[in-house]
Design goal:
With 303 residues, the protein is an alpha/beta fold. The chain has helices at 16-28, 44-51, 72-85, 99-105, 113-130, 163-172, 183-200, 220-230, 238-247, 261-274, 288-301; strands spanning 2-6, 33-36, 59-62, 65-66, 90-95, 132-136, 141-145, 155-158, 175-179, 207-216, 257-259, 278-283. 45% of the residues lie in helices and 19% in strands. The strands form two sheets. Strands 1, 2, 3, 4, 5, 8, 9, 10, 11 and 12 form a ten-stranded parallel sheet that branches.
């Protein structure tokens, strides 16, 4: 199981230089990947493109960019530009987001989300691979024919939890990027269904990237309460709630990797055994010493 860093918590108080420095530090520490969510006014794909100037080998991914707010041609163009700027190290992670965001924040219609994603992926995968699209769908359509910036397309991954999204992810993309998912859900829901879809489509085994808060500490209860406060509301979103119910827990903090070095190692091993191909840790420790302990455990697991 590869180990990466999810630096999306850096966006709580956005500072582009801090984010880029963290990407460079992750590469220096030997991590396989660095992931950034599309949050607020920091454009994730632009940040990854800039990271091409401060990194040279670490893979750089979005976890994730919502599809509703970007036409698939715009999404593909940004990903191809970032791919060129990083010499071929970009993973484009996309997802539906959630109905409250779509309807209440963006004031758009949450209409036929699976159809929306099928159309979206059809266009994006064609543009990334060939620069061309000739697709007429129900939610998205495009006719385009443009030269490509790079020869090797970015990897395409999908945030997928439910059966239909896992089928799309396994049959049409390179894998799935997960949040609020623990080992029981991986073993019972995610891994079997995405693997079955990939096999049926004669595709390689899909990547299954599990992202959770991680915090090495001798004060488990305090740390868990803090993570729970950071993630208030996630357990109320239906797609996450159903995954947390499989785990039998109240909220994301209950499946986060929190505790001593040995406890975090045990958590990593449980995820690996359940089928995760990569763990992307949101390093949540606030104390500098605990942060260094956390990064040390993750770096050790990456080798």
């Amino acid at each position: 199981m590869k180990i990466g860093i999810n630096g999306s918590n850096n966006l709580a108080t956005p500072d582009l230089q801090v984010l880029l420095d963290d990407m460079a530090a992750a590469e220096s520490a030997g991590f396989a990947t660095y992931w950034v969510a599309q949050i607020g006014h920091v454009d994730a794909l632009t940040a990854l493109a800039l990271a091409g100037n401060v990194t040279s080998k670490i893979e750089l991914g979005t976890a994730v960019v919502p599809t509703w707010t970007r036409h698939p041609q715009v999404m593909a163009s940004q990903a191809l530009t970032a791919q060129a700027a990083t010499n071929g190290r970009v993973i484009l992670g996309i997802g539906l987001a959630h109905r409250p965001s779509v309807e209440d924040r963006w004031m758009m219609n949450w209409d036929k989300p699976i159809r929306h994603m099928l159309d979206y992926v059809s266009i994006v995968e064609s543009l990334l691979a060939t620069g061309k699209a000739d697709y007429k769908g129900e939610a998205w359509s495009l006719e385009a024919d443009n030269p490509l910036l790079v020869g090797t397309p970015p990897k395409l991954m999908l945030a997928a939890l439910g059966d239909q999204m896992l089928k799309i992810a396994g049959s049409r993309t390179d894998g799935t990027i997960l949040w609020c998912v623990g080992p029981k859900t991986l073993e019972q829901q995610i891994v079997p269904k995405i693997s079955e879809a990939a096999t049926a489509a004669d595709r390689p085994a899909p990547a299954v990237i599990c992202s959770l808060p991680v915090w090495v500490t001798d004060h488990d209860d305090i740390a868990r309460d803090m993570v729970a406060s950071f993630l208030t509301g996630y357990g109320d979103l239906p797609s996450y709630r159903s995954m947390l119910d499989v785990e039998g827990v109240e909220g994301p903090a209950d499946i986060s990797l929190i505790g001593t070095e040995d406890k975090v190692r045990e958590g990593l091993e449980a995820l690996r055994a359940a089928g995760a191909t990569e763990f992307s840790g949101v390093v949540s420790a606030l104390d500098p010493d605990e942060r260094q302990r956390t990064i040390a455990v993750l770096a050790e697991a990456n080798h």
